[in-house]
């Protein structure tokens, strides 16, 4: 039996999945809930999700934010650093997104799922290609046969 696919979701994808119920993230969420896919997070990624979920445009009060955070914690396995990390990774122009690249390398992810254009551009980095695939939720669904 093949091992479950290992993935990292960036903050926008988590919001799409758990707040907006985006149709492209629902097959991923189902596969995660069924244990076919393992999802990883880290303290700094959770902190960003907590901060972003408080943005007024999302209309989440404290109780709704807590539900969202607990929902994510229930499906994501923590994978925090346990020492020095020197991964051969491309540098994202948005330094706030570098943590997702580092997390994906740390947890030996197969996929980093995002809709961030700067992260998606790094998928084609010629000099330092990441050791994992960076793609959209739609592409991941196709690749994993979820649709």
Describe this structure in words.
This protein has 147 residues and is of the alpha/beta class. It has one domain: Rossmann fold, CATH 3.40.50.1010. Helix content is 44%, strand content 13%. It contains 7 helices and 5 strands. Strands 3-2-1-4-5 form a 5-stranded parallel beta sheet, with helices on both faces. Strand 4 (111-113), helix 6 (117-122) and strand 5 (133-135) form a beta-alpha-beta unit. Helix 3 (43-53) packs antiparallel against helix 4 (62-75). The protein is globular and about 45 Å long. The protein starts with a strand and ends with a helix. The relative contact order is 0.20. The model has no long low-confidence stretch (mean pLDDT 93).
Content of β-strand: 5-15%
Average pLDDT metric: 93
Strand order, largest beta sheet: 3-2-1-4-5
The CATH class turns out to be Alpha Beta
The CATH superfamily turns out to be 5'-nuclease
**Cα separation of the termini:** 21 Å
Order of helices and strands: EHHEHHEHEHEH
Q: Which second-level CATH architecture applies?
A: 3-Layer(aba) Sandwich
Based on secondary structure, the structural category is alpha/beta
Poorly predicted runs of 5 or more residues: none
Structural domain count: 1
